[in-house]
Write a structure and sequence with these properties.
Length: about 120
């Protein structure tokens, strides 16, 4: 065997080792690509989850706005109730004055004097 043949054999062995290393590197690149694809799927799932959370947040905001509006309507109803109470109170006071005047009118008609007058 010549020296050229020996070096060629060594060179072929080195090239075969390089091919094996390149194959291993290709396998690792394929695994890396699969992991990147899994990461992309995770990103899509996370984006979907974030979108879902945003939609839920919008519904919660609408629910909160609804509660605020209900509170405002309750406050308006409370104000309306206070106004009705004052109106009823005024009517009651007017009723008391009417009752007093009726009693006074009856007493004047029967006995001839004004029981609510300061001059009697």
């Amino acid at each position: 065997m010549s020296i050229y043949g020996i070096f060629k054999a060594i060179n072929d062995i080195i090239n075969a080792i390089k091919g094996i290393i390149n194959s291993i590197n290709g396998i690792f690149n394929a695994i890396y690509g699969i992991l990147k694809a899994i990461n992309a799927i995770y990103g899509i799932v996370k984006a979907t989850n974030d979108m879902n959370n945003a939609i839920c947040g919008n519904f919660k905001a609408m629910y909160d706005i609804n509660n605020v509006m209900n509170g405002m309507f309750k406050a308006i109803n409370a104000i309306y109730g206070i106004i009705n109470f004052i109106y009823s109170l005024t009517n009651s006071i007017n009723g008391i004055y009417s009752l007093k005047n009726s009693i006074n009118g009856i007493v004047i008609d029967i006995f001839g004097f004004n029981i609510f007058s300061k001059n009697t």
